[in-house]
């Protein structure tokens, strides 16, 4: 499998755990520490993911700001997003962009893999 996934997570331990889970299942996974870094990687073409795994609560550019910027950029608008968050009121967050799935932290490996695979052609 050569599906590429961009993991946007500010907590380094959580980011590495998500990257490890994805790589274990054969995904090519790259990490970004916040929405700003992720947007830079995407806009420069350094990363061309099939799916983005996105935390919502991050410093600088949070998940909702990232989704807003993503929706304005023709080059990255169509990349599906799997949101991961420790927030217990996720259903009340505004749904914008290509937000396709929501996973509650702590994340179960099977749920993460299923969500990512469902976004892939």
Q: How are the SSEs ordered, and which strands pair?
A:
Layout: E1 4-8, H1 12-24, E2 28-32, H2 35-44, E3 51-55, H3 63-72, E4 81-85, E5 99-104, H4 109-119
Parallel strand pairs: 1-2, 1-3, 3-4, 4-5
What does this structure look like?
There is one protein chain. The protein has 121 residues and is α/β, with parallel strands linked by helices. The protein has a single domain (4-114), classed as 3-Layer(aba) Sandwich (Rossmann fold), CATH 3.40.50. 36% of the residues lie in helices and 21% in strands. It has 4 helices and 5 strands, in the order E-H-E-H-E-H-E-E-H. Strands 2-1-3-4-5 form a 5-stranded parallel sheet. Helix 2 runs parallel beside helix 3. The longest helix is centred in the N-terminal third of the chain and has 13 residues, at 12-24. It is globular. The N and C termini lie close together (12 Å).
- Rg (C-alpha, Å): 13 Å
- Helix % is 25-40%
Q: What is the assigned CATH homologous superfamily?
A: Response regulator
- Give the class-level CATH name: Alpha Beta
Shape: globular
Largest sheet: 5 strands, parallel
Strand order of the largest sheet: 2-1-3-4-5
Examine the coordinates and then state which fold CATH places here, giving the name of the CATH topology: Rossmann fold
Strand-pairing-aware structural class: alpha/beta
Task: Please indicate the percent range of residues in DSSP E strands (runs of 2 or more).
Answer: 15-25%
Low-pLDDT windows of residues: none
The CA-CA distance between the termini, in Å, is 12 Å
What is the count of β-strands? 5
Mean model confidence by pLDDT: 90
Order of helices and strands: EHEHEHEEH
How many H/I helices?
Answer: 4
- Reported CATH architecture: 3-Layer(aba) Sandwich
Number of domains: 1
